[in-house]
Amino acid sequence: FVLVGAPAAPPARTGADRTSVVLRLENVPGSLAMAMTELAIRDIDLTRIESRPTRTELGSYMFFLDFVGHIDDAPVAEALRA
Question: CA–CA separation, 63 vs 12, rounded Å?
Answer without folding.
Answer: 26
